[in-house]
Amino acid sequence: MMGAGPVPVPARVAAANGIVINHLGDTMSQIVEQVKSMSRYVFQTESGRILGVAGPGSAAMEMAVANLVCPGCRVLSVVNGLFSSRLADMAERLDAEVIRLPVYERQSADPAQVDAYLRQYKPHVLTIVQGETSNTTWNHQLPEIARLAHEHDCMIIVDAVCTLSTMTLDMDDWTIDAVITGGQKGLSCIPGVSLVAFSQRAWQFIQGRNDSLKHWCLDARLANRFWYEKSYHYTAPVSGILALHEALRLICTETLSARFNRHQRCSQALQNGVEAMGLSLYVEQSARLTSVLGINVPGGVDAKALLKYMSQRYRVEISGSFGADIVRIGQMGEQCRAHNLFRTLHALGSSLHSMGVALDLPAGVAALESTLDAYEFAPVLPAARVG
Ligand SMILES: *Cc1c(COP(=O)(O)O)cnc(C)c1O
Description:
Aspartate Aminotransferase, domain 1, binds pyridoxal-5'-phosphate
């Protein structure tokens, strides 16, 4: 499973997912406390309110949007592609007045442009993705954009489904009001259980709302009953929460800085391998997402046929795309292991070779290996702040 998600889960996560316990018992309440405290580390927040969601990453997106967006209020959505556009659609369904700021497909959002929109439209909420999985772009100036939103007294919702725990995201330091993640991508957990973290400012806003939310399941004040008051909202996905607990525990044990380093090393090695083999990457370095790589499909090759061949011949799954003529390889969690990289690069190169594309597979494998080696002794990234 080397596509854009779901990703492979560690054996311990799979084992935890096989257990069912009382959703309101003492064990569960201890698990919930630990999930919240480990999440605070992973999101890098001291005071953030952590809520779990039984549902896909999209349910967590909808939870953040539904609780912070009121009917009639103004929302600025920075749209890089499919997922950032989904946030705008969700706000529109809540009868918000949505202004879309389109970003050119292979570029990062520009803080100066966001600033101009903030000045002109004075939105109440800004939505943005850290990484746009659909076209593999990265909004690398997110800290600056979040700071601008804060200056304009605008709450900011960040979708970090494919990026959380793969690269730096500092919720408190960057003054982000809601961070969303799903299980099946950066966290290397199962699909179907997701997390949202709300800032203190966001939580005050939610508590101060006097209208009743359209979404009952996604009402943060109701979810708070389970996550902070040991009582019933809906039957929690106990097995999924146990799996999430284990996935978070593995992240905490590895530490964020070592994990970011592993992701950077593996992603860079794969990028170098792909290029040395003779293929090209879809996005320029500065705007390139490292957690999901977009690779241009060589002329004359049908992407669907390539994926099918790789799956059937080599048992390696990678992803196609929703628009551009690219295939996507994930570099999230367990995907970032040397043996997975060699196998994936070999499957890609050999499949293309069989389809008549001239490539230098040995050069690709050599570049992959030498990049992995070069990182072995590289300095580690700065330590995470919240311990
Ligand atoms: C995958 C993804 C989502 C949606 O997650 P689902 O679990 O499929 O609902 C949202 N945002 C980003 C950036 C993603 O990569």
